[in-house]
Amino acid sequence: MYTDLKFDYSVLVSGFGSKIQLIETFVDEFCTDGPSIHFKGYLPILGIRDLLYKITFSLFGIDKKITSPIAHGNFIKSIFESRSQDLGKIRQTFGGNFDYGIPEHLYIVVHNIDGYSLRNEISQLTLALLANIPQVHMIATIDAIGAQLLWDNRMLSNFNWTTYSMPTYRPYDLELSYGVDSKGGGGSGTTSSGTNKNLQPSTILTVLKSLTEISTDIFKELLTYLIGKKKNRMEFKILFDICKDAFLVSSESGLKTQLREFIDHKIIIQKEIGDTTFLIVPIEISVMEIILSQLESSIS
User: Fold this and answer.
1) What is the pTM assigned to this prediction?
2) CB-based contacts of 50: which residues, under 8 Å, 6+ apart?
3) In terms of CB atoms within 10 Å, which of 11, 199, 242, 247 comes out highest?
4) Are 18 and 141 in contact (CB under 8 A)?
5) How far is CA 20 from its chain centroid?
6) How far apart are CA 259 and CA 273, in angstroms?
7) What is the Cα–Cα distance from 102 to 245, expressed in whole angstroms?
8) Under DSSP, is residue 121 helix (H, G, I), strand (E, B) or coil?
């Protein structure tokens, strides 16, 4: 498989059984001449925008959202095509850190490229765009029957797949633990108590890993308040006052910007009741406690 990657093929692995450990071991042992970005396509709360943000932030320190996934993909492509003198212009416009230059090899690993949140044309077009960047080597797994119908001839040309059937017969423990059924159906996962059964601690912590430290600190303040009050909603104004006192934000618009990612992933639901804006976290208090404990232990 490594030789295929070096000859500008993308690698697509199919076969019954979870292939996460197989692919992770392969990347750790062979793909050592450049950074690797790993994306969990089986997580229903993660989408193509999360992968794009992870690339631009983790590689280049660019903490900006670009509205269109296609535009974001083209932006990443333009960085890899840039000469050293062009990087200064990019830094002036978008910020970031290019002290280590542009990697000659970048490995993008997509576990379940046919995952529920990636099973749309925009996501697949964007992934194909990334795969067509010369420095990018894409490795992906696929499980759903007929999933290759996701790609038209242009996408197939950009992906330039070489395929491997590698059944592992391992149980799909991770892939099936996030509330999406084996047929790829979604569903809200909302219970009668107003909590979302898809929002497990591991899924929320995965999202938090892709966010800035300030966003994580704001979420910790929110959880701390909710746990103390033993309820799952909080007035926006109260959170703003707490975060302002903690020097996390200086304006309400700044707080709204920091919360947007949580709202997009439905970790936080914003609801207007009269003239008051409430922030609702649709998980049980016990789940909040687990998440907060994990966040605090990670920095202790």
Assistant:
1) 0.63
2) 39, 207, 210
3) 199
4) no
5) 16
6) 19
7) 39
8) helix
